[in-house]
Amino acid sequence: MMLTRPGSMASQYYQEMQESFKNNNKSREFPAHTAKVHSVAWSCDGRRLASGSFDKTASVFLLEKDRLVKENNYRGHGDSVDQLCWHPTNPDLFVTASGDKTIRIWDVRTTKCIATVNTKGENINICWSPDGQTIAVGNKDDVVTFIDAKTHRSRAEEQFKFEVNEISWNNDNDMFFLTNGNGCINVLSYPELKPIQSINAHPSNCICIKFDPMGKYFATGSADALVSLWNVEELVCVRCFSRLDWPVRTLSFSHDGKMLASASEDHFIDIAEVETGEKLWEVQCDSPTFTVAWHPKRPLLAYACDDKDGKYDNNREAGTVKLFGLPNDS
């Protein structure tokens, strides 16, 4: 699949990555769960991938050369695991958010749950602060709770008057961002949680937000099928990516901050060059994609799709995790 850009010189990076994906565009799927996978995330060292599922469990895989090898399944939640994330600098700890009104912190060394924190509502969004000290969790009632990662006690709780979608700290840990149902990005100071700015980002529901590892940009995805790229320092929109037709559900920057993967109910994942907005590649999917995550060191993309209705496709495993960027000859 050759992609050439009309009437402009391709950047060296663009050419290098196209060359790379020409030889490494294989996707493989790995059985992970007994129901659909909502969330995938890599540990900071890239050795492990975790997935959270509607089947109430989390799974952890080890990355071995060109495949994922299942290491463990983590049971304990009483409802769907909607989102998970790893500790920013400790590759052994991850946290899961569930509809059972708890979050759980897990340690891959002991494979045990080291903390269960009761929260007020059904949890849907979770993130770990860049300094590792705080976990923020958002629930269906638009309450965000800030939990001390060491004592596991609540530090602060904010009830918002709008529909809260995804939440994230900036890389410097001094601002907290929320995307909302009115298409805005709300920016709060941290830890004071005082409103700094409300950015009218999209004409419709602003769904997801991700910061690039270099701290230069963040991206948002919305129900109008647009991905917007923002300058962190100035909080201004730099460019938009508009190749998807359906609401953008999930985003991920590559480890070098130069590629942005975005996905929706479209049957492909768009991979864009951040600096130009050009399409670098697309990953074909059989169904809508729920979650994407670039590996923290290599151009490998983990993702999970809405597994098809069993009655049409009995031979397809439910709840698989997929990996794109593998060598064509693997």
Automatic annotation (TrEMBL):
Any coiled-coil regions, as ranges: none
Gene Ontology biological-process annotations: mRNA export from nucleus; mRNA processing; RNA splicing
UniProt keyword Cell wall biogenesis/degradation present: no
SMART domains: WD40
Keywords in alphabetical order: Acetylation, mRNA processing, mRNA splicing, mRNA transport, Nucleus, Repeat, RNA-binding, Transport, WD repeat
Broad class of the protein's primary localization: nucleus
WD repeat segments: 30-71, 74-116, 199-233
Example GO molecular function: RNA binding
CDD domains named among the record's database cross-references: WD40
Location(s), subcellular: Nucleus speckle
Function: Component of the THO subcomplex of the TREX complex which is thought to couple mRNA transcription, processing and nuclear export, and which specifically associates with spliced mRNA and not with unspliced pre-mRNA. Required for efficient export of polyadenylated RNA and spliced mRNA. The THOC1-THOC2-THOC3 core complex alone is sufficient to bind export factor NXF1-NXT1 and promote ATPase activity of DDX39B.
Assembly notes: Component of the THO subcomplex, which is composed of THOC1, THOC2, THOC3, THOC5, THOC6 and THOC7. The THO subcomplex interacts with DDX39B to form the THO-DDX39B complex which multimerizes into a 28-subunit tetrameric assembly. Component of the transcription/export (TREX) complex at least composed of ALYREF/THOC4, DDX39B, SARNP/CIP29, CHTOP and the THO subcomplex; in the complex interacts with THOC2. TREX seems to have a dynamic structure involving ATP-dependent remodeling.
Stated family: Belongs to the THOC3 family.
The protein, known as: THO complex subunit 3
Lineage: Eukaryota, Metazoa, Chordata, Craniata, Vertebrata
